[in-house]
Amino acid sequence: MVGALNPSQLLPNGSVYELPSNKTIEISIPATDLTVGGALGGPHPMHLHGHAFDVVRVAGNSTYNYVNPVRRDTVSLGSQAQNDNVTIRFTTNNPGPWFFHCHIDWHLHNGFAVVMAEAPSAAEAQESKATPAALELADILGVQNFP
């Protein structure tokens, strides 16, 4: 079964976003309109693994700050009543699959999450460079087909 399918093929459509290497990614999330990807029932504390990001537009403020934005790994999406919109930016300089999800457990449990697959080929190349110690440990543990 190993290698038979790409892992992203096992997930619902829209769950994995492939991102190119060394690019600036800007994500804007409205808190009100589900038809354009908004987040109903907020505020939602959204967390991105693998990166700190610039919050260029915060909930409750319509001004964009590209000069000196705050850096976070979690941001609140704001509230539906205030017609909030949150915009974040980060640079794809850390290859790998990074989870972006709501930090409210039952929201996460019900699927409020996506995977940012950053530079998948670069991440795969890094993964295949196992150190001798890792190979020895895999052998001791009886792990097959490593890496």
From TrEMBL:
Gene Ontology MF annotations: copper ion binding; oxidoreductase activity
Alphabetized Gene3D superfamilies for the sequence: Cupredoxins - blue copper proteins
InterPro entries (alphabetical): Cu-oxidase_C (IPR011706), Cu-oxidase_fam (IPR045087), Cupredoxin (IPR008972)
The Plastocyanin-like domain, residue ranges: 6-120
Family: Belongs to the multicopper oxidase family.
Protein name: Laccase
Protein's organism: Pisolithus tinctorius Marx 270
